[in-house]
Amino acid sequence: MSLAWFCRPHGPALLAGLAWMLCAQAQQPLPQRAEPMLAALNQARQAGCQGRPGSTRALAPEPRLQRAAERMGLGLDLQAALKAEGYRAQRAGVVALQGYASASALAQGLARHACDTLVDPAWQQAGLHQRGEASWVILAIPFAPPLPEDEAQVRADILQRVNQARAQARRCGGQAMGSAPPLQFNDQLHRSAEVHAADMARHGYFSHTGRDGSQVADRASQSGYAWRRIGENLAAGQTTAAAAVQGWLASPSHCANLMQPAYTEMGLAYAVNPHSREGIYWVQVLGTPR
Q1: 0.90 surpassed by pTM
Q2: Which of 30, 156, 250, 255 shows a CA-CA span of 20 to 30 A to 113?
Q3: pLDDT digits (tens, 9 = 90+) for 241-266
Q4: Which residue from 133, 71, 75, 124 is spatially nearest to 106, judged by alpha carbons?
């Protein structure tokens, strides 16, 4: 995941549209041999191991991970196998074991040799492949960005989280920042953010400078926003509003930008392209009108 920030105290943008590219593949049933393996895995996961508590979140079968595990059995590494199956993961890992021929034995082997991985509650999906006594178990958190129809709700969520953050004094790295008044949402700043998010997603880059050379000040002016002060925070890879705001607050420069009391308005947009490097791109534009 990536973050970038920009702040400019004075003066002047290009408007396009928000492009969405979402990828979906039909779900297919797992091979019969994989079903008892996954059931045994979930049972061991729930039971816990080596004194660690189990996880109540059962792993869901994912045919693309199943096929990726089969590809690993043929010699591909994890990333190549996932790419070959068109599966984008927010996080993925694999456990390869030797010497466990049955489903129950495999689950016991995972509990013995990879307990932390087995009970990690973050994992959501799994794919398994066994060939003789060699086994490959892929665990993943799928890339699941917000849907286009959720954009208004996500914008409202970010605005609320930003204003909650501004309501409390905090340290942004070595800089002490006092509490700041709440921001109001501005449609022109939203359009400015929308342009840049869409362009980064469509062309797979991450920068405050647009491909046409524009900066946040140019884009804000082009959207019709007459500004006295303008700034921009970027993020990429985060799939939730909470993660985007948390990332900004954890970065001293982004945090200081977000907490700047001189800003009174905000625009926010995100754009998704699962085929790009980061998958999702966030743009927050902060402004003070003339």
Answers
A1: no
A2: 30
A3: 999 999 999 999 999 999 999 999 99
A4: 133
Neighbours of 185 (CB within 10 A): 14
Residues 209 and 196: their CA atoms lie apart, in Å, by 9
Four-residue CA torsion sign, 202, 206, 208, 214: negative
Q: How far apart are CA 111 and CA 274, in angstroms?
A: 34
Task: Write out pLDDT tens, residues 23-58.
Answer: 223 334 445 567 889 999 999 999 999 999 999 999
pLDDT for 6: 46
Identify whether the C-beta of residue 287 lies closer than 8 Å to the C-beta of residue 217.
no
